[in-house]
Task: structure prediction
Amino acid sequence: MTGVICTSNLTTALTKEREEEQSFCRVVFMKRLLSCIICICLILCGCDTPMKVTSSEFLPKLDVPEIDAEVEDFAKNSLESTFAGEFLYEDICFETENVSNGTEYAFVGDVAGAFCVTDRSVIYSKNLYNKVYPASTTKLLTCLTAFKYGDLNAVYTVKEDNCGVTTPGAQLCGFSRGDTLTLEQLLYCLMIHSGNDAAVAVAECVSGSVSSFVEKMNREAARIGAKDTHMSNPSGLHAVDHYTTAFDIYLIFHECLKNKELTKIISTKEYTCTFKDITGNEKVMPMTATNQYFSGKKTAPEGITVLAGKTGVTAAAGYCLIILSEDTKGKQYITCVFHSNSYDTLYNDMNELLKLCK
Result:
């Protein structure tokens, strides 16, 4: 009996030791993997000296052939892909620290950023990775998701007045039960007028329900690398579990600009939506973009032309804006401000960012 107990204890001890060894190997493997990634990033940041990179240059080998080989293969394949131009964020601007670019202007918005799309450089950054509520800049992801999964010619019939949106003060197109519109029309209403009822209609038109559509939104955000984003609705109306970062919205906006038809929508200054009500009578709804550069209420600095963008405002999110602009030399910029305290300060902040871009 004693011999059995001793054998059992020995087996348990050996099993535990093996598990600890495997756990240690996994931890070290991840560290070495991270080291390889850091090396790749250093190369992307401008190190043009030919180098031979192996995992052993970062950490001693474990003498576990499977793990050593896996790390070496990862480093080799990643570097080859990088030098071949295959990189997830090859056209994205990165900066881990705040960048002032010498400006003495005190931005009112808690979060701000300026990126040169042409040069792939960060001109200014302030708290880009801080959690923010996106308000209606959410609709950029809504639109992007609708383009991926929906049919622009699909016809949607409104199920209830204002598509069931009852939040006080919410921006609405004023749809009535029985109104029929195409998905394309709904997307213009979503992005130009920023209708929160249009957001619900888009979601139901594409996925049958808001919840199903929001799942697609979050998958799409993850796909493009917006890892600090979680959406709980397609409109941006406030919810505690509806959040993002300025950098993630930059990624989403940048992705939107790759689609010519989507870019056309977010570049539109005025739009007239003509559709039919429940009786078949025609309804005409003219609208002007909420972007005050487009409506003429605000003017960009001389030499800068605003090309596209999206606004957002809620009590929790403050006043938000992200835009694409171009200077007289043809260079393009993405600039954003989040959580400002009024329209005036929002556009003042944005103009200061645009001045840094000139």
The radius of gyration is 25 Å. The chain has two domains: 16-83, 111-357.
